[in-house]
Batch of 4 targets.
Target 1
Amino acid sequence: MGFGDFNYVVTELDQQEGFRMGQMVGHVIADLNDRFTFFGEVSLTAKDDKYSVEVERALVRYDFADEFKLSLGRFHTPIGYWNAAFHHGSWLQTSVARPEMIKFGSRFIPTHFVGVMAEGSMPSSSLGLGYKVGIGNGRAENVARAGDAGDINDHRAWVARVQSRPISIVGLEVGATFYSDQLLAPDLTDTRERIYSVHAAFDRDSPEILAEYAHVTHDPVGGSGGLPGSDGWYVQVGYRLWGALSSVKPYVRVEQVIIPEGEEIFAPLNLNYDGVVLGIRYDPGVFLALRLEYRSEQFEALQRTNSLYAQASFVLSGS
Amino acid sequence: MKGMNIVRTMASVLVLVAAAGPMVSTVHAQSDGGEAVAIVVHPDVTIDDDNLTLAELRSIFLAERQHWGDRSRITLLVRAAIAPERDLILTEIYGMSEDRYRQY
């Protein structure tokens, strides 16, 4: 199975306009035996002078039972909703791109995680409770990257997530995540990173309501703590129309990333963001989506910019 | 919550069968009207009272539950898109459109 997308961009941002090749994604799934499964996801992303190849996810999973599955490899960090629900392949999501706080390559939330992960369901007949607990390398020296070649320090990152998917309301999920790691600040100070995240999603077609909030703190190890943290959030609402227009799904998203002045890790990275996204998704076929999306964005204290994106995204399915 | 009776077959997988008329009584599937759905499983699978609740079915079809009680893996088969039973399953169990189901 694979995914791909082609784009056309008109923007006031300081970026190249015109046609853009998007990301091509391939998946491979293999049952190694009755209990072991391998999953791999590889992407090809168009850059200015080449295609970059990335192993996005690669993991081996052992299924003990529904209550306990153990995986080893490279994951999408299970922080919040989007990063755990939508993976590479923009066809999977309603909008052209991810929210700023959780976009691939984001420095606000670590989107990838290398390590070991336990997950499963918890005894609850109606609430559909589940968990994910992982320990891994955490961020690399480049905070947008996972520690693929090892940890940059002796302090492993860990993540714990609980969610509820009530079985009587298909599509509803509420959850909370805690993530902890240790980083090296630009002044070489050992810094403790903690991420607190909550989400609520009603992931249906009519309506689709996705909301997520994350609070990130960076405190020097051994310090008194209590430094102001950074916030990121988004709310996205979509609604697939009915009757002859059932292939059409308008959507809107508002989002922000707010970094306190002088924040040790994030402030030098200029991550402040305020965006409004309006779009229409049209599905002319089962495995093809066409989108037209308008964005009004403000990065840091710069002037607000307008952009228009047109995208064709598709899935290559064996079925 | 309404339950679903189980029909055992030599098939090594969980399959879905829908039928109308005499077939319903033959498989003892419950019905709200003229159409009913039966869930078919391998005879070796142990299910309490040969009955699955709608909630249990939903958790299986949504892949929230992937193993039977004896830890054997559930292999799920759903009829092709042209089958009317599929529409029934998408509506009653998944609560999704065909497009949404494929996306899921």
Target 2
Amino acid sequence: MNIWFSYHWHALVLAFKRLALIPFSTLLTLGVIGIAFSLPAGIYVFLENVETLSGQFSSSPQLSLFLKLNATQSEAGKIESFLKENPHVASFRFIPKASALEQFKENPGLAEVMDGLEGNPLPDAFVVTVRDVSAETLETLSRALSELHQVEHVQLDSAWMQRLDALLKLGRLAAWMLSLLLSLLVIAVVFNTIRLQILTMRDEIEVAKLIGATNGFIRRPFLYFGTIQGLVGGIVAWLIISLGIHLTDEPVKHLMQLYETDFRLYHLSMGDSLVMFLFSAGLGWLGAWLSVVSHLLKIEPR
Amino acid sequence: MISFSEVSKRYPNGFEALRNVSFTVETGEMALINGHSGAGKTTLLRLIAAIERSTTGSVIVNGQDVGRLNGAAIPFLRRNFGLVFQDQKLLFDRSVFENVLLPLQISGFESKAAVRRVRAALDKVGLLGKEKARPITLSGGEQQRLCIARAIVSRPSILIADEPTSNLDMEYAKDIMAIFKSFHQVGVTVLISTHDVELLGDTPQRILTLSHGELTG
């Protein structure tokens, strides 16, 4: 156990020394691995955020009911009582045209536009939350509502949800394909770095073999070398994503306030981050292992 | 114990480096292998350390048939030897100390004890004051002594040196031979190849003479 530990410690120290000996190439390699990982991981984070966001919008499906501009208050009241009696309606909220206008005016950009208009161009509206989520119920309800007197338009908020869902699925597939390709890239990068290492250390490897080093002893520092590169590359990717989130968080928050939603960007969760680090370290190890197997064992003392 | 029985070595290009060589060096014995250059001295030593394998015949070291060892066993065979190479094979990107430490790292030696052993080995060859130096800054004789320190640091039972004095002037060469003799005196089996019989000095020594791959005496 003690010997085992000292072998591994020796290999780890040697790996760090070798990395430090070639700082420029180490930094470049870490950069390449980091960027390669940050692409699929970044897309993953983006998709997670979009999904959370869409969930916030549609925790229960909603219908927007816009009345005709000339609809009177009593006509709105009739629609209100219809909604109260309908079993599919969980809750609803009436937004009179005046308060809708107020909301628009709160936004400094839109306020000017609104001031330029004569009168209120906005209709009265109901936002209806539906009890049953099934597409059929939504369809039936929206048809019933659109046939009511003085209803101009019924907007089913789930249509864009379905489209978004399909898009998210597509995005996720793309992220997976990208991670597969970039994983191969990472393996190739580490493979090549280790190959160069082995070539420049030919003498050392030869001498070590002559004085009784096992293949394991010679292989170990290279495996650590690759694993460290993979791991630190993963951390670099994590930092790149952090930077991206830091830079976009404020604008996104601002944009979401326009939609009356309080939303902050999420980073990778602790578990996801750990998985990414393990995965990147594993890829580094794999690249090193492939390289060692194909180059190291060919070096025999002359 | 090192024992050759009817060993021949033919290289792929057809050159026959050794022909029907048989001899035995007992444990604790010191023997010199003498012969002109190209007589097969180096090949003989390389067969012992399993750097090469004989074409026919068998090489037995400490009861093990070297030619039949599988790849995984060879490192452990080599740990029995202290090897001093003709071309020294020092690592020039490491200090004198680290060069000598390498065999102990390979055999998984505990680090505090290893430091003591490295110092002892350097002391033995008179390089204790230069442990931080780079091998490239050492003289030829010092480099050779460094190579010996690396060979003896793990206290091997068999010391094998290939032309350890070839590039040294007489004075240095005698020093080196004296070091080898002192190991022989404490019970280490010593096998040295040399083309220079002058060095043997007055002390009687067992000499194996090779000529064109054949043992002649």
Target 3
Amino acid sequence: MLSEAAVNEIKDIRKRYATARSCIMPCLFVVQREYGYITEEGMREIAKILDVKPVLVFEVATFYTMYNKKPVGKYHVQVCTNIACSILDGEHILDVISRKLGIKVKETTQDKKFTLSTVECLGSCGTAPMMQINDKYYENLNDMKVEEILNSLR
Amino acid sequence: MFEPVILKNINTPDSHKLSAYINSGGYQALKKTIEMTPDTLIQLVKDSGLRGRGGAGFSTGLKWSFIPKDPTLQKYLCCNADEGEPGTFKDRAIIEYDPHQLIEGMVIASYAIGADTSYIYIRGEFALGADRLEDAIKEAYQKNYLGKNILGSKFNHDMYVHRGAGAYICGEETALLESIEGRRALPRIKPPFPAHVGLFGKPTVINNVETLACIPHIVNRGAGWFASIGPAKSPGPKLFGISGSVNKPGLYELPMGTPLREIIFTHAGGMKAGKKLKAVVPGGVSAPMLTEKDLDTPMDFDSLAAKGTMLGSGAVIVIDDSMCIVKAALITHEFFHHESCGKCTPCREGLDWLVKVMRRIEHGQGKEGDIELLEKLCVDIFGRTFCPLGDGAVMALRGAFNNFREEFDYHIKNKRCMVNGNR
């Protein structure tokens, strides 16, 4: 069940748009925050509060990549491998992280602390190579910096 | 030295707060605006010669003038802050460090077109930027730069932030509208254009962040001032984001039309030690690449179009001689393939096929005839889709073929890379 605060947040979101359907994207972020990922229960709750068919929520949740349809670790490490990061050896950064965490891309550590993903351009090309951990950007990365960042989260 | 206009505040402490913006003369343009008629304002922006900074380069004033004048019609303004073209990081700087500049530009634009509501569509990954925008919007409401009867006028305006959730396609304006409406972001067929049938079916203007950030300055300093910067046909200050193998990558504000060579070698400090310039992508990955011989091209819409490429978002990606172009092209096309929304068959299926062939060439399993196959796929994708995503992929690949076809041939023939004896 969504918390009362989350339900109120959804009702507040409803005021920003001309249609209930427009609220689906912001509501999915609320659900993701509440449950850690997008659960079917959460999607059905959104549909009920907004009074839209559940399929309208499912189709949005499955289109956009930032909605995690499966549980992710406490820290979701997303490494950019697009062109600007690649030129400055973003793949090496990915290797370093993968070795340090002992997991491959798309995997989660056994203690459920870290999930490793690659990601397309995050708009941080002037400070490449870079990664995002949860909401935060980490830029101008090198081996030592990566080591420090991951240690600080252990 | 060119005096920055759009980035002038970004090094001020707490530049994202209202107090800092007011101290630098912020919201004076809005005060001037409410004394003007919307038509005068639209004419001013037309006269300035401002062209859309999102990539298309369409006249902003003209775009505004397409909105029906009927005052009983609901109208919307949407700010495209879905900055996603690889190489691009300019709008993020405005949003994170000077959000009020954008908000002021949006209120003025909304006044011009008669919109009482606007949305900022920001890519979901820009969490810090979205938070700063929401805080700035709250500050603006408190000072009546937003809300009812703005600064004592009859103009009312509400502004909201809509966070995207990781889909490049939302940078395409009609996909962006679909996304605000809470749907999968599949581009719409045009016509009808958003100026007539836009958000929730109402007349809508969609402008890029940098475009809107220019507006307060045009109101304050006049159309003539703006038009006097850079080339007559595409004037104004422009943000160039330089990334790749240069000594000082970063964001530079320079007059439109600054030569590519000056941007790379004067402002961005030239190539990294021991690296030689091999190719430059001048406007985000959809823009066909240029080489050494093209470095004196002025960076503006028309000069780059004449070279068969485009200014796009002004994102300059510098590729050095240690990078294999087959690999660079594969990275680029994996991106387009991943981001194709799946609506149009030529893009969805074409890019899937294209990437499969490119992967086998890169991994030393290319076959004779593969390049011809790729060229045929390009013909089958280009111009056959609702939106320009597939076209962008084709243009990028053709740019690579035009300049570095021998690297593709070498990969196929020798089953390995031409550069550095790789693999």
Target 4
Amino acid sequence: MMLTIFLTKNNQDKKNLNLNDNKYSYDIKNPKFTINSNKEKISINAKGASFINTDEILLEKNVIFISDKFTIKSQEVYFNRKNQTAYSKKNSTFISNGAKINSDGFEITNEGNIIEFNGKTKIVLVK
Amino acid sequence: MKLIYILLLLTPTLFARDKGQIEITTDEGIEVFQKEKYYLLKKNVKIDSDDFILTAEQVKAFFEKDLYDIKYIESEGSVKFISNDGVTVYGEKLTFSSKNNNIHVSGINSSILIKNITMKSNGYIKIDDLKGKFKIEGPDSLLLTENISIFGNNIEGEYNKINNINKIINLTVIDNDLSEIKTDKLQMFSSKAIFSEKNNLIELFDNVKVIRDSEIIIGDYAKINTLDESYKIISKKSNKVKILIDNNQ
């Protein structure tokens, strides 16, 4: 009985690793990272991640950056562990207290102090 | 066909900004500097809010607490600013403070229209709308109202808002060459001119020339009563006032 459960779970993990999509296979499943600056901590979650090189990781599917001040959602984000930077060239949505930004991509640099949204961008600010 | 027509009718409603919202669109994105508390909007920028609509090539917006609390704007490149209280501004560079309604516009063909007052300059125009003060400086500066036109390199003054109409209450015009003040009946030239609405008086200083119909009077100083447009001209230096009467006019 125990063995069956183990094998079933193992098979499920394998399936999860491929995320039910033959095109994708990830090095890390459900990765979680953190960018730490002096004042702010940014948590990063995604469904999968692949190593591009030693420092750079490609985060894919339901990528979410969460800090006390904002949330950014995108389908594909490149994260550099060494420089603690991140960028995306895919549609991204930024949500903060009273602000929603839709853009063709973004870049987070300077320990999260500078956030750049690229391409055609629409910002809606609400008091 | 009917569906397309209905969709076309609905489109403006679907994309309309809600009251209280600020909607910003750009062609080349936005950079948010959280520590410095400003954001940079790039290329073909439009800011649409309850208080104003601003279009420009680039805008730097400084905020207080969050992105909504815009306290100060620096914009450049074909700037157009329209406030909901009747101020329209055109220029190459514009700064606007939402706290005290200060506007500074500069560059070729700068202009500010405040309801019935038009200000233009190829230098800069500065307005403190709360205090009702303005300054126009630079080449081809002018100020126009319904009944008076003022031309000079440096025009500075104050205005009052009465019943939604702006009224100039005082101004000083200085020009290294000659300033010009034009009413329906008079054309006045001088190096410096001072207008006081309270005293119904225009004073002209140095290189004074007053033209009324075919009459041209030249002197060093002039006092013009703005109620009946009568005037008195004196010449301090030469003690002589020159009067020319052109019969051909």
